[in-house]
Give the backbone structure.
Amino acid sequence: MKIAVSSGKGGTGKTFIATNISSVLAKREKKVRYLDCDVEEPNGHLFLKPGIHKEEDVMLLAPCGVDEKKCIKCGKCVEACHYNAIAMVNNKVLFFNELCHVCGGCKIVCPVDAILEKERKIGVIRHGKSGTIDFHYALLETAEGGMSPRLVKKVKDCAKEGINILDSSPGTACPVVETVKEVDLCVLVTDPTPFGINDLKLAVDMARDVGQEPVIVVNRAEYCDNRLKDYCRREKLEIIGEIPDDRQIAETYSTGDIVVEKLPRYRELFEKIASRMIELAGEKRPVKKIEKVEAPAGEKTENLQKAKQYKTPEGVGKPEELVVISGKGGTGKTSLAASFAALAKDTVISDCDVDAADLHLILDPRIRERGDFSGGVKVEIDQDKCTGCGKCEEACQFSAIRKETVDGKTSFSVDPVACEGCGVCYLVCKDKAIKIEDAVNGEWFISETRFGPMSHAKLGVAEENSGRLVTLVRNKGALLAHEFGKDKDLIDGSPGTGCPVIASLTGADYALIVTEPTVSGIHDMRRVLEVTGHFGVPAGVVVNKYDLNTDMTDKVKRLSEDYNVEFLGVIPYDKKVTEAQMKGLSVMEYTRGPVTESIEQIWQKVSSRFKSVEKG
C-alpha cells in the first residue's frame, strides 16, 4: 500500500503529517516504510532520525561536451534540445549541465557522433531504520534540478509490502507528479489561508490529472472564513483531519521532535487520521474529471507560434535583479516579497514561483497582456503507421512509452503524464508514426499593480519545463523594466533547489534567503546556500518567525558566517501577517508594529547591499 502526502505549497506541514502518521502506524505494529521523495529538500530524517546503514551514489550516463575534432558546427544538437542546455556561441558548442535532462536527443541527431558522454552523479540515496520504520531518502546533487524525477523514481523503487508513506515535494511540477502517480491514496495538506487555498486548487487538479482523487488534511485549522470548506464541499473533497493552530506544535516541530510523542494529547487525532488513510487507500474511488478548455484550431496555431517566442529582443538590457528565495516553502518568502514591493521604488516585480504562484493574491494584478508558453512538444503514436519496432520505447529515457501486446500483436502508446516533451521518440522513428506538435505548457502575464508593473506566469497542470517558464518571466520582466525606465526587478523565486530555482538565480545580482528557526529550515537553508554558491550569486539571510526558537535563530546566524553570507535580520512571529493576507494586503499596508519595523530595516539593508553589488 502506497500513501503519498503532498501539498500545493511548502510550509503547510506535509512532512509534519507524514512523520507523525508513520509514528502512530509503527506503534500499531504495522510494517511501515518511509520514502522521502522530496529529493531537493528531504526533511523526514530530521524528525524520525533513522540510523543509516547503506548509502549509494546514483549515476547517469550524460552528455558532457563535444569532440572538437569531429564536430562540424551544424547546430543540430542545439535545435534538438528543448531544455536550453546546449548553445552555439562564436561557432563553439557549449553544454550547460544544470539544464540538461539527459534525454539523449543531441546524441541521436549528431551526424558525426561528436557528442561526448560520461557518468554523472545526480544524487545519493540512503537506507536506514527508525525504530521499526524502514527509511529511504535521497539527496539531489547541487544544481541538478532536472534530475529530480529520476531520483524520485529511485526512492519509489524502495517500496515494499506493508504501508509505504511517500513524503512528496510541494507544488505541482514533475517531481510531485512522479511521486503521486500510481499510489493508492494521495493526501493533500493545506491551511485555510488564501495562499493555502490557491495552491490546494492547483494540487487537486494535478492529482486528478494523474488519476488520483485526493483527500485533504487541514493544518493550522484556524478558520477566518468558509472559503476552504466551501471549496472542498463544491469539489466533493473529503477532509480527513484538522490539526489545530497550536504554537506548542510549532515549537515542538522546530526542535525536530515528533508531536504525538512530545504532545500525547494529539495522538488520538493522528490515530483517527491514519485509520481513515488506510481505509481510503484500500478503496477504489472515482476520479473527478478536470475540464480543460481547448482553443479553436486557428487560434491554437497562432497561440503556439507566440508561445515559442520567449527570448528578450536585442538591445534590451537586463535590470538589476533581487531574488527572494527559500530552501523550503512556508517560510514567508512571498509575504516578504510583497512587503518589499510596497516599500520599493523604481522596480518591476516578477513572480517566478510558476507552479504555485501566490504573489498575485496580494498584489491583485490587472492583466494587460497574456500569452501561451511552449516548453516542449506533444507526441502521439499513429497506430496505422506504427510497425511495432520498439525503437521509441528503447530511446525514451523517461519510461513514457507504454508497450502492450494483445492477441500476439504489439503496440506502443505515449503516457502523457510521464512524457517530458523531449521529442526523442520522433527523432528515432523511421516509420514516421510519431505525430508531433508544440505543446502548451503554461501561460504568461504582463500586468499592472498598485506597486508597479508585474511579470508572472502559471505552469499548466502536471506540466514540465518550469525552468524555461521562469526564464520567460525574467525576460518579460526585463522588457517591462526597459519599457517603464526601471533599473531593478524584484523577483519572488521558487522554494527548493530544483529547475525553477536555478532558472531564478542564474545571472541574478543578489539573493535574499528567507528561512525559519527550525531543524528543517536550517537544513534547507544550507542546501540553497550551496546553490547560490555554485552560481556565484551574492546572498543574505533573514529569519522569519525568529522568536519561535531563539536557539535555532542563533544557529542560522552561525551558519551564515560559515557560508560567508550576510545575516540581514530577523522578523517576529505575528498573526497580523496572515490577517493582511486574508484581506489581500501586504503587512506593510495593514498594520504598524515590530513586524513592519523589522521588514523596513531589512529592506534598507538589502537596498544598500544591492547598490553595492552594482558598484562592485
The two ends are 57 Å apart (CA to CA). The longest strand covers residues 51-66.
